[in-house]
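Shipment paperwork, digital attachment
Item: protein structure file
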Amino acid sequence: MLRPRIPVNPLPTGTLTPLAQPPATTEPHHDITPAPCNHDHTPAPTPVTSPRTTVQLTPGSAVALAAGGGAVVLVVGTVLVSMLLAVAITGVSVAVIAVVLRLLIRDMQKGR
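Attachment content:
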């Protein structure tokens, strides 16, 4: 049915090396020597870690942080309440218009 295709491994050097294929025979080959590689085997340098400083809160900065958080909560709450109020006013006005239109249509049908 469907056979998967094995991709070729691209190396950073730009040369393409196909994946290893199993040998056709089961006899051991003692005359095969591994090919020499052309890259450096020195270990990669370890990244330098900088000492982290902890953030120290003074009483004044803690009060400022709490006041800023409270201000954000008040602003977000005001915006949400005003949006809810706008939706409620729109719903009431649509309901009033529906009642008026229903009464007008009923009067037009009775006046035939």
